[in-house]
Design goal:
Layout: E1 16-20, H1 33-39, E2 43-47, H2 65-68, H3 70-77, E3 85-90, H4 93-103, E4 108-114, H5 126-135, E5 145-151, E6 154-160, H6 163-170, H7 176-185, E7 214-219, H8 227-236, E8 241-245, H9 252-255, H10 257-271
Domain AB hydrolase-1: 18-262
InterPro entries: AB_hydrolase_1 (IPR000073), AB_hydrolase_fold (IPR029058), MES/HNL (IPR045889)
GO molecular function, one term: methyl jasmonate esterase activity
């Protein structure tokens, strides 16, 4: 019997990329990049975090940031000892990648932060979210809607990204088809700012998180996360290598998938040799 592969995974003897989406998005946003990486001989898993994409839970049912990140934590924990994992986080997904690095440093060959939230060891996860919100212009979210979720842990804020925000800040250089897709399938998301894990300054350690090779991909024309903000995150972790992509929007994997693929292949060739 021939085993059927998840079309978002693939099988090969190359590196195993695990792709993590940003706020309100899902595995679907990597649909252009996945076949490119597979064609280059690598295994690819694009994950839905909890209450995202096609994941069955609702955001008000997700108890914590750890539970939100559980699909990634389980995937890394279940990886074979001979696999060489390359975690790729986009936007808010960088914080889930950081948590996985802290928990399983010996299973991750490298982590790539694609215009992503990249914390540094010894500071709280929530620092990145707080700084982004501090720098955000009052009208940045445009037609997006804040909401309050009633959860078993108490009230939690969430946001639903509006179509005008998607068009102006996230998909401004992407195709009309990608923008329409996003307006159809994005879901309300939470930044878990009230979660104790976000406030824990001892969570990310130099021994674990700090021991994994980190690389930041600066998207120079990102209207959602400014280049200045991206550079600030990189500066928090001195020695972090970087690559740059020009001409892409915040959703670089949609607007410039070939460039993103080329960057990832260069990164693993340079830093994750056999």
């Amino acid at each position: 019997m021939t085993e059927r592969c998840n079309p978002m995974e693939g099988t090969s003897s190359g590196k195993h990329f695990i792709l993590i989406h940003g706020l309100c998005h899902g595995a679907w946003c990597w649909y252009k990049l996945v076949p490119m990486l597979r064609a280059a001989g690598h295994r690819v898993t694009a994950l839905d975090l909890a209450a995202s994409g096609a994941h069955p839970a609702r955001m008000d049912e997700v108890a914590s940031f750890e539970d939100y990140s559980r699909p990634l934590l389980d995937a890394v924990a279940g990886a074979g000892e001979d696999e060489r994992l390359v975690l790729v986080g986009h936007s808010f997904g960088g914080l889930s990648v950081a948590l996985a690095m802290e928990r399983f440093p010996r299973k991750v060959a490298a982590a790539v932060f694609l215009t992503a939230s990249m914390p540094c060891a010894g500071t709280r996860l929530g620092l990145i979210v707080e700084e982004f919100l501090r720098r955000m212009e009052p009208d940045f979210l445009m037609d997006s809607k804040w909401m309050v979720l009633n959860t078993d842990q108490g009230a939690r804020t969430a946001v639903a990204l509006g179509p005008k925000l998607l068009a102006a800040k996230l998909y401004d250089r992407s195709s009309a088809e990608d923008l329409v897709l996003a307006t159809m399938v994005t879901r309300p998301g939470s930044q878990f700012v009230e979660d104790p894990m976000m406030k824990d300054e001892t969570l990310l350690t130099e021994a674990n998180y700090g021991s994994v090779k980190k690389l930041f991909v600066v998207v120079k024309d990102d209207a959602g996360t400014s280049e200045e903000m991206q550079r600030w995150m990189q500066d928090l972790s001195p020695g972090t290598e970087s690559e740059e992509i020009a001409g892409a929007d915040h959703m670089a994997m949609c607007s410039r998938p070939r460039e993103v693929c080329d960057v990832l292949l260069r990164i693993i060739s340079k830093y994750c040799g056999e």
